[in-house]
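Quick one: structure tokens for this chain, please?
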Amino acid sequence: MGAVGTFDADGLTVGSHSDQSPHEHGQKKQRTDAAASEPMESQELELEVRWMATDNVVCLVMVSPGMSISQVKQLVQAEAGIPIEDQRLLLGGRELSGDAPLPSPLAAPLLLVRSVSDPRVSNLSHFRTETEFEALPQGAFTHVRKLASGIHGDIFQYRWHQQSSESTVAVKKLRADRLRRSSGTETDERVVHMEPWKKSPSAEDALTEIGVLTYLSRQADVCPYLLRMRGVFAEEGFAWLVTDFAEGGDLFDLAVSGRVREDKLQHYMFELLQAVEYLHRHRIGHRDISLENILLREDSVQLMDFGMSVCSHSASGVPLRFFRAVGKDSYRAPEVYCPTTAKTRVIVPAGSKPGSVAMATAGSGFFCEIKLPADAKPRQSCMAEVWGYAAQPADIFACGVSFFMLAWQCPPWRMATLADAMFSYVHNNGVGGVEALLRHWKRPLLSPGAMSFLAQTLKFDPAERPSAAMSLASPWLAPLGEAAMADVR
């Protein structure tokens, strides 16, 4: 019998399959001896999947060294029909992420827990922190100048005097009364969007920003292209959010100053996508990526402003769905403009399947992702469930718009809706829409690699956009990653 672990009643155990007769054992030993001289990559291991509650076998799957957890889940789905999004694989009490390789050797059984939940139910307070902070150390900060005004408070440059060092920092002075406004508000964004009469939180939440920055500050491998928090302190009527100071301003100012060379564009996009990839790997959706929120520190990108951030995936790795059109107009992806009703009438897109999630026009020139009913037929009208949008593909779209604006010093459109003439022009021209728009404007194009990269990030359908990791591996950016690895060696 395969190895058995302990978990809850809905759990499955995954372990090496060893229910065999002596004859089978001898055959397997011969096969093992014969395979001993083969490369490790060619060897496969038979894993047994069992329901934890009954110990009944669910399926057997063949796995090999280096196989990812996502691939294991695909095998379980193919054999047992359990959807990938319902599966949670754990080892030693730790959940294994989808892109991670299968541990080898398997010293303990994997546990598979089936977790079925509605991805449209989100928690806007996931990163939100408490309002109790350490008292501001007296005499430690010297005011230099005011940098900017913000929604929740103004931003200043200070000198921070510590015991053995002195540094220049940025301080966002957050009004304490504004921080407390999120208390008792609705946390499910779908409810906030569709039932606005309920007590709704602000789209930008300072406590969420502090919470995300606090989480990032505790990571040993934190990405250098994310603005670093230095501390949070309480003063009479204010909370001081202290971060590194970025002396180079933001990328919006750089774009306004004139055209940016392609090699610099490549450099900035490489760093930005490393920051985004790190956030996404940690299940953080930014939702407000823009040139204004990308600072320069020693000519390196510093992505900031996490007030609209969300936990992008459930504990089982299912992308959560969001409903508010947050962020800045030009940077928003087309799918973020969700109807305020639970269902909407659509024309079923060609090639889509009943029960699937698809991108469709929801009327008035807006697009949205919907879940089709079981009786949906392509090119016919039907009522479909409004399915919200996933945060990570929307972030990639915002990166693409940031790239466009930095390269040509103007936005490609005002809003990504069919009511916008420029977006409609790009959409109607298909894959080459962005390039067609630039030719129409008589603007110079970048290299073919850069144009292809841009077109991929601005794909109309979020399901077709590359992930941040895939973007970094694109032919246009991959050489920078290889060069960085060579420098490390």
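The domain at 45-114 is CATH 3.10.20.90 (Ubiquitin-like (UB roll)).
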